[in-house]
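User: quick one, fold this
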Amino acid sequence: MRVGGVTLARLLPRALLAALILAVLVSCETISYYGQAAQGQLSLLLGRKEIQSLLRDESLAQETRSKLALILEARQFAEEQLLLDTGSSYLSYVELNRPFVVWNVFAAPEFSTQSQTWCYPIAGCVSYRGFFSERRARDFADSLERERLDVYSGGVDAYSTLGWFDDPITSAVLRRSDHVLLSLLFHELAHRLVYLPGDTTFNESFATFMEQEGLRRWLQLHPQPGLMAQLEREALIDKAFVALVSRYREKLDALYAGPLEEEAMRAEKALVQEALRVEYRSFREDWDYRGYDRWFAGPLNNAQLGTVASYNDLVPSFAGLLRESEGDLTRFYAKVTELSKLTVEQRSILLSEASL
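Assistant:
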């Protein structure tokens, strides 16, 4: 039997596995969380429509048609040119009745930039909690704030189930420009290739590097001089943004390691956050770029600063590994796989050396 283009028989074994996982959980809060996650994932799987079938529909809007055709082309490119495992992911499409597929909540102690983690079956421990409902995400964020944690949350266009399911493309992704859509696709497919449970920075930095490298190679085959110049400029701005945030994160690390009492430390923390806002105003004028305005409208707390670290800290290291591999992706992936087998300390040393 097929529902929404999905064969139910294919879903049942993994649905039963999810049920078994839930059965061994003891916390009511945890059961509630996994319940909403299972329900949200199942709704995506049951709502899928095959892209090829949609493309045969003459009534399909031209803009949607172009985006879906681009996704199929990008999948083939990712498989043949980037040597990524596409499986059967992104061969289907889901129309959502919400702006994002999930909302992620991040948290950190009031006086530490070390992100709090939550542990899950298969995925291991990660520095966020994801919700298919914005209201549930907001409620959870509020509960963390009541515990005096720094909290930051935001919507997400796409995520990977690491090959456990055939992930669909959602309407949240189609809102993006073509080059951002391509970047998202390469990022999520990278998670299927290498994923180390419990190391968010390793996983997300690798995927961020692969989205950048993937887009670079795509544009080599599909030259767009104007876009290439734009992306080169944005890459410089992104690098300056990461450096700016990292510098203030280090200022906070030094503050938290100091001898101040809580009240005084809290006051100094607020001064550092305000100084970051002031410097950003100069940053945006120097670069004539407003792309980070929404980000800087956030609290600029430990949780928010930690999101930049997770997605960017090791990108230079992976770039160094690819240079060592002379641009050969097979050799590069072999190096990354070997790194994933090492201890955290061993990985840290080798990745630091690679970034030089």
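User: anything notable?
Assistant: The first strand starts at residue 2 and ends at 3.
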